[in-house]
Amino acid sequence: MIAAPELTAATAQAWLASGLPAMLVRVGATRGSVPREEGVTMLVSADAVAGTIGGGHLEWEAIARARAALAQGHTAPDEWRVSLGPTLGQCCGGALSLHFEPLSAQSLAAWAAPPPRFRLQLYGAGHVGRAIAQACTTLPCTVRWLDERDDEFPAATLPAHIHTVAAQPLEDEVADAQPGDFHLILTHSHALDLALTHAVLQRGDAGWLGLIGSATKRARFEHRLAERGHPPAALAQMVCPIGLAGISGKEPGVIAAAVVAQMLLHSHPY
């Protein structure tokens, strides 16, 4: 059985390349309160599902319909219009259409993956960096994960949307970011953190800038960055300490949850 809880273009391409019969199930027009938004897609085979259209009775019925179509050898697209309350007894109360289409080169070419919520430049592959990268594995985002030490990255294969880069000097990699990228700095060295923060502020086009550390570290960095010519308005953009207020704890997983939630609050699909 294929285990693929998240649907990505790479997952769909792998299923197609393997010759596994599957159905693409896409949310069409919606009205009122519904579990997922228009365009969300789920991939269904006889014994596996990738992605979700919101769970619950709607998803269970959609999977059953997709598998029935596969078993019967249907090759034409189909549509199912659903009023969630009267048809399925769901309290959402809205209505939507679901579109069913066999996975093929044509349907895959026409399928648009959901846009990333954010593009992240993640500097540092220590305990917290690894926890944040792990938290991003199932999110619609792209991560460029950077460290000077190649052996700090996990040996396990990462999802296609998380790309590792080992480079020295690391601050030179800031130039390869795109305008609007998020930058999260949490390396093993305060001197490197300072150099990276200086480089990001020099660009002046970050969508969000986070720096791990305490209020004391922030005060020291503000002083040193001001000496390098950064005005107060630019320094105010630096988020340090990082993480949503009210979430306490220094365990890497707790920090990761608080920081990823913070980035999602500042994000928007590209």
Index terms:
6-stranded parallel sheet; 20% strand; alpha/beta; 270 residues
What's this model, at a glance?
The chain has about 270 residues and is α/β, with parallel strands linked by helices. About 35% of the residues lie in helices and about 20% in strands. The strands form 2 sheets. Strands 8-7-6-9-10-11 form a 6-stranded parallel sheet, with helices on one face.
Verbal overview:
The chain has 270 residues and is an alpha/beta fold. The protein is 34% helix and 20% strand. The chain has nine helices and eleven strands. A six-stranded parallel beta sheet has the order 8-7-6-9-10-11, covered by helices on one side. It has a five-stranded antiparallel beta sheet with strand order 3-2-1-5-4. α5 packs across α9 (252-265). The longest helix has 16 residues, at 56-71. The two termini are 34 Å apart. Residues 1-5 have low confidence and may be disordered.
Give the SSE map.
Blueprint: H1 9-18, E1 23-31, E2 41-44, E3 49-50, H2 56-71, E4 78-83, H3 84-88, E5 95-102, H4 105-110, E6 119-123, H5 127-135, E7 142-147, E8 162-166, E9 182-185, H6 190-203, E10 208-211, H7 215-227, H8 232-235, E11 238-239, H9 252-265
Parallel strand pairs: 6-7, 6-9, 7-8, 9-10, 10-11
Antiparallel strand pairs: 1-2, 1-5, 2-3, 4-5
